[in-house]
Amino acid sequence: MPRLAKRTEQVMPFYAVELFKQAAVLNAQGRDVISLGIGEPDFTAPPQVVETMHRAAQAGLSGYTPPSGISPLRDAIAHYYRQSFGATVDPSRVVVTSGASGALLLAAMALINPGDEILMPDPSYPANQNFIMAAGGLPRLIPSTPEKRYQLNADDVRAHWGPATKGVLIASPSNPTGASIARADLQALIAEVKRRDGFVIMDEIYLGLYYDERPSSALTLDDGIIVINSFSKYFHMTGWRLGWMIVPPHMLAAVEKLAASLAICAPALAQHAALTCFDPEVMHIYENRRLSFKQRRDYLLPEFERLGLHVPVVPDGAFYIYADISRHSRDSAAFSHRLLHEAGVAAVPGMDFGPAHAAHTMRFSYATGLDRLQEAIARIERLVGG
Predict the structure, then answer these.
(1) Are residues 114 and 234 in the same domain?
(2) N or C of the chain: less Cβ packing under 10 Å?
(3) In this structure, are residues 236 and 289 in contact, taking their beta carbons and an 8 Å threshold?
(4) How many CA atoms lie within 13 A of 173 on its CB side?
(5) Count of structural domains, the chain
(6) Same domain, 95 and 75
(7) Alpha-carbon span 104 to 228, nearest angstrom
(8) Model pTM?
(9) What is the rounded CA–CA span in Å between residue 170 and residue 11?
(10) 127/36 same-domain check
């Protein structure tokens, strides 16, 4: 048998997927499992978007597109960033990709050489490390704290930047915490990285799911950073595999060349359908759904505190609660197992997101209906007591 590449041993596992598999087995056995695990909206693409896809298919628009995506969609994304997040973006800088994952892969391949070190916060989304390693880079997790909203800041850059460090990969709002980076802190962080001629890759896939003040894009602070976004979360098109990146002009030719070879193009029908996402009546649907997520968050936060699941940082975006379970357990994997098998509630142990807080934290997703969240709280209460 041929030997597998060493990188297959280095790839970070995603325990949320394993949890999903276990929950599926229990469901197949007739158990009712409430999933607070997978970060996938319970909403799907609005009917108008699906209808546009059907029309595009009937019109024969399923062939290859340019590697950077169809021009109308790039224009629409640039307009969306200007109208919603205050960033002026030339559509030529928009590259449509096969999901945010495709964008992260292109960014890593364009920027990272073997041996390059990239700083990331601990906790953070585990798959992001794999994109760095796929390009031969070395992800370096920097433990963060609730006082820093579980994010990197300028002090971290000063303290941990070394000879091999080339950039940072950050997210705002973040998975697993749902916490954004304060604007002043982000500006200071970007400035520290630029002083060292480094790059900033900013994951903004949850930017549209905000619950307090409307955010602005990091591009309003510095348009030389690389921004990643997606139609999966705010636009509820997870399986359509469509995302985008916004890159500085000097990167565009290299990214397009890589895109043409690695992906050819993002799914054509998904691109044509996504144009309808930006119609005013469809945006109204998305905004109502955003408020539904806020209602769920506002219900869960006091319930978690009542049950001794402390939330050190109130999430202001995404659809996650990152809770400290210390009152009930110092082994999040064991507690996750109990929740699933004794209470029928699936939630992700902290080990998925880095070692710093792995033992005493868990991520709970509220991408499911309020009635199911209420039942989940009742089940957790029966397990741990009030």
Answers:
(1) yes
(2) N
(3) yes
(4) 27
(5) 2
(6) yes
(7) 7
(8) 0.95
(9) 19
(10) no
With b for 16 or more beta-carbon neighbours within 10 A and e for fewer, the 136-168 pattern comes to ebbbbbbebeeebbbbbbbebbeeebeeebbbb
Q: Identify the three-state secondary structure at position 123.
A: coil
Pair (296, 249) in one structural domain: no
Q: Identify whether 1 is part of a domain.
A: no
Separation of alpha carbons 306 and 308, rounded Å: 6
Domain end call among 264, 279, 294: 279
Helix, strand or coil, per DSSP, at residue 302: helix
Domain boundary pick from 261, 279, 297: 279
Claim to verify: residue 228 and residue 321 sit in the same structural domain = no
Residue with tokens 């800041």: 153
H/E stretch holding 85 reads: helix 71-85
Distance CA 353, CA 351 (A): 5
Domain that holds residue 26: 7-44+282-384
* Res. 22 pLDDT band, cuts 50 70 90: confident
- Whether 300 and 185 share a structural domain: no
pLDDT digits (tens, 9 = 90+) for 217-265: 999 999 999 999 999 999 999 999 999 999 999 999 999 999 999 999 9
Burial class (CB in 10 A: 0-12, 13-18, 19+), 26: middle
Round to whole Å and give the CA distance between 267 and 239.
11
